[in-house]
Amino acid sequence: MTGTTPNVDTIICGDCLEEMRQFPDKYFDLCLTDPPYGIGEAAGKNQSRSKAFGSKTHAAHNTRKTVIPSKDYGNAAWDNKPPSEELFDELFRVSKNQIIFGGNYFCLPPSPCWIVWDKDNSGDFADCELAWTSFPTAVRKIKFRWNGMLQEDMKHKETRYHPTQKPVKLFMDILEKYSKPGDTVLDPFLGSGTTAIACLKTDRRYVGIEKEPEYCEIARKRVAAVPARLDRWAEAGI
């Protein structure tokens, strides 16, 4: 399938399914994303212990696709249901490799490589979050505290703009492990812009898609606060 080559280092405010349909096959080196799980996080009603979640299996040579019925908790918000099967089809079509947070909520093909994010948490919140990957390597654990007001790097504490916001340093570590400088990275669920910022700081190109205008504005402001690549390269004498 041919498609329109997207501008890089850009944030698109729109429906990610419609936008991805415009992109060429395997255009992105990596899709790094944190989709809605359908657990009511936007409304503060995390129902992650419920049994019915998911989307269909996607394997490189799959001959069978299994669908787990999705559950709609009735929240009028961005995370009232998990992504559609068609959206996962497009995500896999446009990217060469994928890292999908919340992979344990979706029916994805078996993978030897899961990323375990140890949040160094306390209380009722989950100790870890899991990211499914398409890579053939071993399971890896990244420890980075993200426990309410407590963060791993308190000297450079991040403002929390989004209910499921991830630390920039966590995504930087992931990009440095599973991609290389100059790669083009897609995040179809950009939220408050963490993936874009991590790409800028690790010299990757990015395309971020976010359907909520208020989060697009937040993401753009956060990205604008990051020194441009050329400015940083000049400072480093490159």
Listing every helix as H and every strand as E from the N terminus to the C terminus, the arrangement reads EHEHEEEEEEHEHEHH
- What percentage of amino acids are in beta strands? 15-25%
CATH superfamily: Vaccinia Virus protein VP39
> How many strands appear in the DSSP assignment?
10
CATH classification class: Alpha Beta
The separation of the N and C termini measures: 38 Å
Total individual domains = 1
Topology-level CATH name? Rossmann fold
- Average pLDDT, all residues: 81
The level of helicity is 10-25%
**What value does the Rg take, in angstroms?**
17 Å
Overall shape: it is globular
| Largest sheet, spatial ordering of strands | 1-10-9-2-3-5-4-6
Structural class call reads: alpha/beta
Spans of at least 5 consecutive residues whose pLDDT stays below 50 are: 45-76
The CATH architecture is: 3-Layer(aba) Sandwich
Count helical runs. Answer: 6
Biggest sheet record: 8 strands, mixed
Structural account:
By secondary structure, the chain is α/β, with parallel strands linked by helices. The chain has a single domain (10-235), classed as Rossmann fold (3-Layer(aba) Sandwich), CATH 3.40.50. It is 22% helix and 19% strand. The protein is built from six helices and ten strands. Strand 7 and strand 8 form a beta hairpin.
